[in-house]
Write a structure and sequence with these properties.
Layout: E1 14-15, E2 18-21, H1 34-37, E3 48-55, H2 57-67, H3 69-86, H4 89-106, H5 108-121, H6 125-133, E4 149-152, E5 160-167, E6 175-182, E7 188-192, E8 199-204, E9 208-215, H7 231-237, H8 241-249, E10 257-264, E11 269-274, E12 279-282, E13 288-291, H9 298-301, H10 308-327, H11 335-342, E14 360-368, E15 373-377, E16 387-390
Parallel strand pairs: 2-3, 3-6
Antiparallel strand pairs: 1-2, 4-5, 4-13, 5-14, 6-7, 7-8, 8-9, 9-10, 10-11, 11-12, 14-15, 15-16
Helix pairs in contact: 2-5, 3-6, 4-5
């Protein structure tokens, strides 16, 4: 189903909770199932926005910025207003110089795309770039989030990566499902914040899928990368779990840390434990691997900050719950089982959380690498159907 529009305009249509924003060529994507997203009207705060872009980095950025102009302006105004209240100008300027300088050196195409986004949205690049890197200024635990990840080497749909996004409120922020088709490079299907760069999960047309969950370490690294900004380069430059593991070894985080979960079409699964200084990769001989919000490697956990009694207990309970679920004699590796895990309400250690120990599951995702599909629950998965998006 295709509908022509004028250049630099975008056609929006609501199908349930999904808004489709077309690419610059004036067509809406056929790379996802309309049938799968014609559901009942969701609450406004559960909207997913679909955006397809193509071309060189500057063109990709301009297309994205022009399609989400109003939302980007609002997002930048809120983010920059908050950060200007917290930090002195000289601190912000110094931080921007360091963080954007590292990105310019390591990922110049991302910087070109960011400039294109600002231009397309008709907003200041200084304000937009500050909103993108603002997490690099945050003080733990004010912008902390929690996640559970589980990976299957095989299933009735091939290798799977499932994850939740948990936060300290039940509010569900608007997210963007991006299909990015560079002129020369790897096609990426990913889910991002409104800024279009900070990435939560995704996969590429080479058969690699990624997830994440937050970690917090005492160390910092001024030459590191903001943790949410590493997923997009990983998807844009890597084709396998092995390549992703090597890539992460060369790219530390600037502060805090992350689990980077990886699965590929070869059935390889791994979890990278990445701190600003240290790095470890967990692999398994079994068919399942999982993580919550603490490292499973004892020597790495000794380097972590405590999340407090409730936070540590919550992560440990979720980890134990995943262990119990996957070690059951009747456990089966299937897409149905993956959805069931993400909807699990066991107490203690529920994967789908509803305020227990002040955490709420805001979204859930499943990457099906053999089929090039990203399934997204735009809210708690126990209350929402998974919506299907496919790499075209």
């Amino acid at each position: 189903m295709t509908k022509k529009i004028k250049r630099r305009e975008f056609f929006k249509k609501s199908f349930g909770s999904v808004i489709i924003a077309t690419g610059i060529n004036g067509t809406n994507s056929s790379a996802f199932s309309l049938k799968s997203i014609k559901t009942k009207q969701q609450q406004k705060d559960k909207i997913l926005i679909w955006v397809e872009t193509s071309g060189n980095p500057a063109e990709i950025g301009f297309q994205y910025g022009s399609q989400l102009k109003d939302k980007l302006k609002e997002y930048c105004e809120i983010r920059t207003a908050n950060i200007y209240k917290k930090y002195k100008k000289n601190i912000l300027e110094k931080g921007k110089k360091v963080m954007l300088g590292v990105m310019e050196q390591e990922f110049p195409y991302i910087i070109k795309e960011m400039r294109g986004i600002a231009k397309g949205a008709e907003i200041s690049y200084d304000d937009y770039s500050l909103s993108v890197i603002s997490a690099g200024f945050s003080i733990f635990p004010k912008e902390s989030d929690e996640c559970s990840n589980i990976l299957f080497k095989e299933s009735d749909h091939g290798p799977l990566l499932g994850k939740t996004l948990d936060g300290t409120t039940p509010d569900v922020a608007t997210s963007v499902v991006r299909l990015i088709k560079p002129k020369n490079g790897i096609t990426v299907l990913c889910l991002t914040r409104i800024d279009g760069i900070s990435t939560e999960t995704g996969l590429n047309n080479k058969g690699l899928a990624l997830g994440e969950s937050s970690l917090h370490f005492f160390t910092t690294n001024p030459r590191g990368i903001i943790r949410t900004l590493l997923l997009r380069p990983l998807l844009s430059e890597c084709s396998s779990v092995e390549e992703g593991s090597q890539y992460l070894a060369a790219h530390p985080t600037i502060k805090d840390g992350f689990h980077y979960t990886m699965v590929d079409t070869g059935g390889n699964i791994a979890i990278a434990e990445r701190s600003p200084i240290e790095y470890n990769v967990r692999r398994t001989e079994s068919k399942v691997i999982y993580c919550t919000n603490h490292t499973a490697s004892p020597w790495m956990r000794k380097l972590e900050k405590s999340r407090g009694v409730e936070g540590d207990r919550n992560s440990d309970n979720r980890f134990q719950n995943l262990k119990n679920i996957t070690s059951d004699d009747n456990f089966e590796l299937s897409l149905k089982s993956m959805k069931k895990i993400l909807r699990n309400h066991n107490i203690p250690g529920g994967i789908c959380q509803h305020g227990n120990e002040n955490l709420y599951t805001q979204k859930a995702y499943i990457n099906i690498v053999n089929e090039g599909k990203l399934l997204v629950s735009p809210g708690p998965p126990c209350k929402n159907d998974f919506k299907e998006f496919v790499i075209g």
